[in-house]
Amino acid sequence: HESVFKRLQDATEPTFVAGLRNAVADVSYEGLEVEDVLGRYQKIPVENPWHLGDVRLEGDQMSWLNDAGVSWSLTPMIAEGRLETGPDNPYYDPEIPRHFQLIMGEDELGDPNETYEGFSFLGQLYVLDRPCEGDFNEDGIVDGADLAILLVSWGPSESPADLDGDGLVGGSDLGLLFANWGTCPGDGGGFLARRPAGRRGPAIQHPPPAPSSTLGTEIGCACRHGSHPPNLVCTPADESDPSK
Ligand SMILES: [Ca+2]
Ligand SMILES: [Ca+2]
């Protein structure tokens, strides 16, 4: 830990500090599972193909494969908050353990929450590139167009609009969509919201804009006070709303 603290002392870059603070703070990895860390990652910012890659699981073997085609094995130590690397890691140093330190997200007060965000490696943040929940038309923003798609699928459905996967497009999916309103990807909090504009998609706005007032109010009431599908009480406002 000595080297970590030395680097922490020397660190000035906010993202670096954020990553390291997770490493030294009392972060709970309870509930985090191997499946949660699988997927595609990107370093912020991406500067070369080593900064994009996938954490994969083939059989029992976890590995990292970057876009430069370089791969090394990982040993998941999820409960301890890290993926360990070994001698096949090009950065391997027998004197210094160089693992992927798992990073949990932060709430508005900067305290760790239970959302897995990515990992830090060699002091760099790699963020899990998770699909944008609620962005059904994949235009990089969750807005009225996506809401319209959800409303059309209301009821028992195998539509992608069934965000929580319970076989029903309903109020809980609506809640998830509103939770991601305007932002893509992420939860609108934590270091993800402070990251610079990425190579893909629009710059992340912080705080995310609220849903349009008319639409939001009507849908919100319908959602809170009854189980009626919102399209029974709401006009398709997003289509008639000139601001859309
Ligand atoms: Ca969209
Ligand atoms: Ca659902």
Chain-wise SSE layout:
Layout: H1 2-10, H2 14-24, H3 34-37, E1 39-43, E2 52-58, E3 61-66, E4 71-77, E5 82-85, E6 100-106, E7 112-121, E8 124-128, H4 144-152, E9 155-156, E10 168-169, H5 171-179, H6 190-194, H7 213-225, H8 237-240
Antiparallel strand pairs: 1-2, 1-8, 2-3, 3-4, 4-5, 5-6, 6-7, 7-8, 9-10
The structure holds calcium ion (2 copies).
Number of beta-strand segments: 10
**Which architecture of the largest domain would the CATH scheme give at its second level?**
Beta Barrel
Q: Fraction of residues in helices? A: 25-40%
For this structure, the quaternary state is single chain
Mean pLDDT: 75
CATH class placement of the largest domain: Mainly Beta
Q: What is the number of helices?
A: 8
Distance between the termini: 52 Å
Percent of sequence in beta strands: 15-25%
Large-scale geometry: elongated
Radius of gyration: 20 Å
CATH topology of the largest domain: Lipocalin
Bound small molecules, by name, code or SMILES, are: calcium ion
Return the string of H and E elements: HHHEEEEEEEEHEEHHHH
- What kind of sheet is the major sheet? 8 strands, antiparallel, barrel
Low-pLDDT residue spans:
186-240
**Largest sheet, spatial ordering of strands:** 1-2-3-4-5-6-7-8
